UniProtKB/TrEMBL annotation:
V-type proton ATPase subunit S1/VOA1 transmembrane domain location: 372-410
Protein topology in the membrane: Single-pass membrane protein
One GO CC annotation: endomembrane system
Subcellular location: Membrane
GO biological process: regulation of cellular pH
InterPro entries according to UniProt: Ac45_acc_su (IPR008388), VAS1/VOA1_TM (IPR046756), VAS1_LD (IPR046755)
Gene name linked to the record: Atp6ap1
The protein, known as: VAS1 ATPase
Length: 422
């Protein structure tokens, strides 16, 4: 029993998960999403009516339980949650807690999944990321698609007669609740500001000898091939680091970050992604700048897709940071296809930070953001203001040109006649 608003720590989470390891069924499914909060279940299930994205049995049972708790509570209730820092070590904790056979389920078609019930199985399912903040409809569709994935996998295992337990969680919360401890403090607090969550996992580093020459980090790193095959590389790149970076090259002028994956999904035997960066001296600013010039995707060692990049740059001593990078027109930093093969790929990278030169102490240097000062919103405000100022100036000018008559007609006197010469 935990009091409302309690944040479950990593140590408490290990105690709560102990019943999973002593029961007869030793099959565990871990559904991992990029963002998720308890409020998402109640908000999305009630606000969208017939479009409720939660349709599978697992989520319906959880929603019914939440509604019963909310209705039975005599006062407003803040449900307990799990600290996102504890989730970072959840996979490693589960692996250390038993002799599990770890299986990464990356293919959305789970009908071909083979489960050997004679041994304990840990199925790791990386769900699709939520495009939150850009479009609520796309977020709703992504949650509905993840709900279908959970339903297909659980129903398939039930039809086979396999008993299992399910953990549905995320790397970080989608909604940051107000801190409950500030009400006990006497001094005033800025409630609108929250401490930004630190990196959920360490960045990927490439070393030459004992020195680190490349640092790479992304909160979400996903691809889509031919508008159908979804490939999530976040976990393989940063959490388990099941990626080959031996082909990366470092120098003072050109740097290439090479990420090679073996069988990321069914149908693709190998996948290589290259980030090509240069360090040049520009006379206009009288300093060196590092730029990310292009991104290449090589499938099965033959099909090569090339994307040009224009806005990701920083002084050579800094790192480059972009909130959203991808092939969509909505992203501030866009990857522009430069050949026909690139048109078959969709790329989505959030919270990208990369540094290919002058890395010190195995840490990112000061980040130079790729978003310029004059954003589309600022330009729209400036143009609108200029138009309104022009209209105001024209109106004032017209008012100043108005003149009054020098003589007025008296209704009691003779009619006023004005000669045509006046």
């Amino acid at each position: 029993a935990l009091h409302e608003g309690h944040i479950v720590s990593a140590q408490e989470l290990t105690v709560l998960l102990q019943p999973l390891f002593i029961q007869n069924s030793r099959n565990l499914i871990l559904f991992l999403q990029d963002t998720l909060s308890i409020d998402d279940f109640t908000y999305l299930s009630e606000s969208y009516g017939n479009k409720n994205p939660f349709q599978n049995q697992v989520n319906k049972l959880f929603i019914n339980l939440l509604q019963e708790i909310l209705q039975s509570s005599p006062s407003s209730l803040v449900l307990p949650a799990v600290d996102c820092k504890a989730i970072r070590y959840l996979l490693s904790f589960l692996q250390e807690s038993g002799d599990w056979k770890l299986t990464y389920v990356t293919n959305l078609d789970v009908s071909q999944l083979q489960v050997n019930t004679s041994n304990p199985n840990l199925l790791m399912v990386q769900l699709q990321p939520l495009v939150s903040g850009l479009n609520k409809v796309s977020t709703l569709e992504a949650i509905a698609e993840n709900d279908k994935i959970i339903g297909r996998l659980t129903m398939d295992l039930q039809e086979r007669g396999i008993h299992f337990s399910v953990i549905y969680t995320a790397v970080r919360p989608s909604r940051i609740s107000r801190r409950t401890d500030v009400v006990w403090e006497l001094r005033r607090q800025l409630m609108a500001t929250e401490e930004e969550d630190s990196l959920s996992y360490p960045p990927l580093n490439v070393t030459t000898g004992n020195d680190t020459c490349i640092l790479f980090y992304a909160r979400n790193f996903t691809l889509k091939a031919n508008n159908s095959v979804f490939i999530d590389l976040t976990n393989s790149t940063f959490v388990t680091q099941n990626v080959d970076i031996s082909s990366s090259e470092c120098s003072d002028i050109n740097t290439t970050l090479s990420l090679k994956y073996t069988k990321p999904v069914n149908g693709i035997s190998s996948l290589e992604i290259r980030f090509l960066m240069t360090n040049k001296f520009y006379e206009g600013s009288a300093r060196n700048w590092s730029t990310l010039d292009s991104v290449e995707i090589v499938q099965d060692g033959e099909k090569s897709a090339t994307f040009n990049v224009y806005v990701i740059s920083a002084p050579a001593e800094y790192s480059s940071h972009c909130q959203l990078v991808g092939t969509s027109n909505l992203y501030p930093a866009r990857l522009i296809p430069s050949n026909d093969e690139a048109k078959n790929w969709d790329v989505f990278i959030s919270r990208l930070q990369i540094q290919g030169f002058n890395v010190e102490n195995n840490q990112f240097a000061y980040a130079s953001d790729c978003t310029g000062f004059f954003t589309p919103g600022i330009w729209m405000g400036l143009v609108t203001s200029i138009v309104l100022v022009c209209i105001l100036t024209y109106g004032i000018h017209m008012i100043m040109q108005l003149t009054t008559n020098s003589r007025f007609d008296d209704p009691k006197g003779p009619a006023l006649s004005v000669p045509q010469t006046e």
